[in-house]
Structures are given as structure tokens and as C-alpha cells.
Amino acid sequence: MRRFFLLLVTMCLWAAGAFANVPMGPEFQALTMPMRPGRRSVERLLLLPDGLYGVTVSEQGRIGYFRVVDGEIIEPVAALPNGVVEPLELADRGCGFTWDPTAKVAYSLSSTGKLLKHTGRGADRKTEELGQVSGTRPFEDKQNAKVEGYQRSSVMFFDPQGNLYTAGKDGFLFRYAPATGKLEQLDARLPAVRGREPWASLDAAVLAPDGMVYGGTFDGYLFSLDLQTLQVVNLGKPLRQGRIPGLVMRNGNLYGIGGDEEGLPRTFLYDIEDHGFVLGTPIQTPAVPGSGPYSQHEISPPALVIGPQNQIYLATTGRLGGVFRWIPHLQSIHPG
Amino acid sequence: MLTAFRFSIMLMLAVILAGAATAIEGVLFTVPPETNTSSAYTALAASPAGKVYVGTALYGGSAWLCELDPATGLWRKLFNAHQVTRDAGTGLDSQSKIHAKIQIDADGVIWAATKQGNEEFVVRPEYGESPGGYPGGHLFSYDPRDGRVTDHGILMKQEGLMGGAIDNARRRLYLWSDPKQHLLIYDIAANRVTDKGVTGGSPRYIAIDPNGRVFGTGWPGRPGVLWMYDPATDELSDLAVRLDGPGPYEDPYVLVTGADGRRLFGCALFGKHVFEYDLDSIRLEAPGKETVPGTCGTIRVIDRGVVPNPEKEYNLHAGAVGLDGCFYFANQKRLVRYDPRKQQIEDLGEVRQKGDAPLSKTAIPNGAAVGPDGSLYVMYIYPLVVVQFERLTLPPGGK
């Protein structure tokens, strides 16, 4: 009887995953996308006062919108809520883009690396050129440089005072102050291997509660930026691959996704307190809820956002793009 | 009462003995053992000249392309992938499988493609994180007229090549990449690759119809979906399966085009049913009007019933259409025929070697092809052999 009981307990523990190397349950939960393949590449997720919204671009360049209802259901909508500037630039993959906190003003980087300001909707839409931010990479013909030749950052971010930041020529940070209309190149510079500075553009950035900014570069370096001193600290490179397409802060931890389009994106956690990385697995998710673990997804910045109820949402691009809820298996390296 | 009981027992014994007694004999050819680690996959083809081509799996080393002359039983080792490519990868990084179905073009040139062998499916340690890593699967051609082997290069960085179909009218090859599941089109004349994007499926068999439309299963990532690439529109579409019959629907492993070009036949790994895909029923729907959200249209699939099997063990793992228009497939060590005209599934019996010797206890079918004389070839692994069922698929009355 005792043996049977021990066997039963062992079986229960085994079933509960106590002996497993990885925690039970899927790390990524797919939200069912009602849009047909080729029309569901999710380019942006946007948290607005009334919920989480998304922007899709079809293979033909057509822009669509959806809302995430109750954190789970993707519902196509005709437009973003009233007053939010429509992101026409999003059909241009790799274009840095952001809304200001009101979402009534938007900023983007043009195909030739100029900072643009957008206001109004429809016929009232206005675009203002604010100045050159991006440089070009070496050996490009600057007169006829292709779009890919410009060192465009994929994201921009605001400080608590409402100043806009991004990275540009040779990896230098640029700041635009909407209050004064001043655009300036700062002394602060993104980390890069010597000679790779023209590739040092901004892939991801997140403002921490302590006022520090954490960011990721095109070459895959994580860094911190002190907004008071404008000091940049290179925190290292979680992966051998380049790119950090997504970074978010959750419960005091910095969660990220690294890896390039020709590689295989993988998850990581940066422990801010202990200055250490915890490395995860590839972003291997079911293409539809309940399906097998085989589908690999295309990840483009900005891939992560914190949505309602402090949940992390992942946007994937390409023909079978979609939205996934990330329930990280990665935990802090803190013993406590 | 006792008589009825005895009768029942005798009847059961008779049924069991009848089932066990049914057998079909084939000629067994052992693939040169030094070319494989007892394994291979769907890479089996029979040429119009009557030769049989086998792509092997040699884990941790280099896959081989071998040629069998069934008339003499002689094998030729044509090339190994590492010799031709000068790749020297080992373990995860080696060109250790020719998995994709071997294709034969209108000139009789043989096309084969490699992929990685050993795989860590979840963590993929070599992908992006190794200085060398698996470089990507190569596409090769072998011309039997002059013996020339050509390496056409890596079609997609770090991705193995699987599936395989040829459109001889357009001189195109269709393959898909592993693990990212991109549909790749190789233009033979232009030596150019086009990437049509993620399919979400891992079809070991890709079927092609007379219009050049290419079909593959969405399994396992997108169950209940069949993807279709139409060269007329250059569109890759996902079709939701509309099941006609009792089901349940089983996403196919084997998928082949019927002789009339108007239907596909399919059966599944560990499945029990034979399915017919009605190509005339394909309906592409306007965006926003889709019957099944997330897809582009529908296809009617008819469940033709459960495969009769006295052993009650199902693994429908290799199949081909015979010259008689019937769909022949292996169910573990048994052979099965589906006749679309009669809509009848027939168990042809346990496969045995000529002389009534059984296959090895560990044999698993993996690959099927039909020769110009109507012979059916089925490849079995552990150990790697090819079994020829001489002229089995010839229509009644000869040619």
C-alpha cells in the first residue's frame, strides 16, 4: 500500500512537471487572428486609455487596425480611436515611429532619415520636417543611397518631461524638445564595436521607474542611459546574433527578445539589480491556439508592449503575423 | 449455446488466420549501408529510364544520393553532399539528410536537396548562435546523361530543405524551409530563388496539379488548413478544410495528386482514414468574407473511410499513385490500395520479401514511388531497404 502511495505521488509530481527542466504551460499564448494570411503582419501595438490597439500592414502595403478585447480577442476596427494620428508611415518597414503621450501627435523617421512630425487626420493631416537625424553607412553612395543605406532607428521614446529621443548618425542620440522645437545631437552614443558606429541604431527602448532608460541596438547590445547625466553604459550582449527587437519592464525586470531576421529570435531577462542576463529559448509558438510547437515567427521592432493587467504582448510580422501573450518562464536571478 | 460459442471462437480464429495469411511479396534491395545510418525519409523516385534514386540520412555526417538498377540489383553511390559542397559540418551542422522528395525534370535530370539531420527542435542551439552553425540546405542536380553533379547552392540561410515538387512546364522546383517553413520557389532556368513566406506547415509531401497549383498541409502548426500556391496569380492562400463524411479529419502526411489531376489523396501519420481533396471545389473568398476566419477560402475533403487493418496498428507514412490511378500506401508493414473509381480501400496484406521472409521487426515505411513499368517501390528504414512490388500498379490488361 505504501509503495503504491509513493508511486502515485511520484506519478503526480511527474505529471505536474516537478522533474521537468522547463516550467509547464506554453510561454507564448496565441491570440486568434481573424485576418487572412498576408494581411496580418502586426507592425505596432499601442496601449491607449481605452485599451490595446494594433496596426497591421498587408503584403500589398495596406494598413489595417484592430483592438484587443479583454486582452484576448482580436477585433478588426476601421480606424484607431478618435484623435489618434493614423500611422501612414508604418507601411515603410524599419521606419522609426511613435506617438506622443496624447497619441494626437506622431513622429517618424523618413526613408532618408529626417525626423518628421505628424498632426491631424485625413484631409487635415500635416507633416512637418524637423531635421536630419540619420547618417548613412560607409561605402554607400550618399547621393543615391538606397533606403537600406540610411542608419534609421526603429524606435523613439519620450522622457518624463516630454522630450523625444532617438539615435541617428554614427550612433549618437538625438533629442527633440516639442516645447521649443529644438532638435539637437547629444554627446551620448550607443555602444558599438569600433567601425560599427554607423550601424548603431536604436531597436528598442524602455523607460524604467527609476528614470533610467534601457535600450537595445541593431548590433544586439543592451545599454542603459541616465537621462540626468546622459551617460550610456554598455550592459553587454545577451546573444551572439544582432538586433534587440523588443524590451519591456515588468515587475522590476527587463524582459527582451534578441535576434535578427536571418537568425532565430530568443528571449532573455536582464536583472537590473544583479546586472546579469538570464537567457531563454527561441520564440517558438503555436501558430494557432492549441496547435503544435513548430511554427517560427518573424519578429521586427518594436515587438513587445505592456498591455492591460501588466501583461506582455508580442507582435509578430510576416504572412502569418499575429499577437501573442508572453508569460515568461524567465525569472530574476535573485535568490529571494 | 455451447455450439454457438464454439462457432464464434472458430470464426474469430478463421478471421485472425485469414488476416495473418494475407501477404504481398516484394523484391528487397538493401541500400549500401555505408551511405546511411539505417535511415532515410521521403527521398525516393523512379526515373522514366527505370532507375530508382534514394536520398539517405547519415546522422552527424553527409547524406548520399544513390541509384539502383532494379533489373540487375546493382547500386551506384552517386555523390555525398559534403564531397560536393566541401562542407565539413558535424553533428547539428552537417548536411546529413536528403529528406525532400527527389524530383526528375523533363530532361531526366535528378534534383535532390539536403537538410540538417540531428535537430534540437525546441532550443535550436546552432541557429544564429554558432559561428558556423548549420549553413543551410543545398540543392543539387545530377544528370544521368553525363554523370555531372551540380551544387546549386543554399536556398535559404541556416534552413534545411524539405517537401519537394516540380513544375516541368514552368521549370520550377517547390521546396519549403525547415524550421521557418517558408515556401521557396527555385527557377531552374534563371537559377533564382523566390521566398513566398511562412506557410505554418511542415508537409513531407507537396502535391502539384496539372495547372501547376501546389498544395501542402498546414500540419502541425495550422491543423485543418491546406495551403495552395497558384502560379497564375502568384498567390499563396490558406484553404480551410470542409470535411464531407464521418471523419474526424486527419491532417495528411502523404499527399499526392490523382491521375485525373482533379483530386489529391491524403493519409496521416498514425491516421486511419483515406481522404480525397476535391480540387474543383476550391473557393477563394473575398477579404472579410471568409467562411473560416484567418483563411482565404475552402476546399472540400471527402473521408473515404477507415483503412482495413487486421493488426489495428496505423501509421500511414508513404504513398504514391500507380499507373492504374489507384493510391498505394504503406501502413506500417502492410500495403494498402485505394481505388478512386470504386471508392474502395483494400488491404493488400503484410509485406514480405520474395521467398516469404518477413521484413525486419523494426521496419518503418518512409518514401514511395512508381516506376515506368508500373512497379511500386517503398523504402523502409531500420535497416534501409527498398522493396519493389513488380508491376503492381499496371492497369488491368497491361499498359
Structure description:
The complex is a heterodimer of chains A (336) and B (399). With 336 residues, chain A is mainly beta. In chain A, 4% of the residues lie in helices and 39% in strands. Chain A contains 1 helix and 24 strands. Chain A has a 4-stranded antiparallel β-sheet, with no helix packed on it. In chain A, strands 2-3-4-5 form a 4-stranded antiparallel β-sheet, with no helix packed on it. In chain A, a hairpin with a 5-residue loop joins strand 23 and strand 24. The radius of gyration of chain A is 21 Å and the shape is globular. The two termini of chain A are 39 Å apart. About 5% of the residues of chain A have low confidence. With 399 residues, chain B is mainly beta. Chain B is 6% helix and 46% strand. Chain B has 2 helices and 29 strands. In chain B, the strands form 5 sheets. In chain B, strands 1, 22, 23, 24, 25, 26, 27, 28 and 29 form a 9-stranded mixed β-sheet that branches. Chain B has an 8-stranded mixed β-sheet with strand order 14-15-16-17-21-20-19-18, with no helix packed on it. Chain B is globular. About 2% of the residues of chain B have low confidence. Chains A and B meet through loops of A and strand 17 of B.
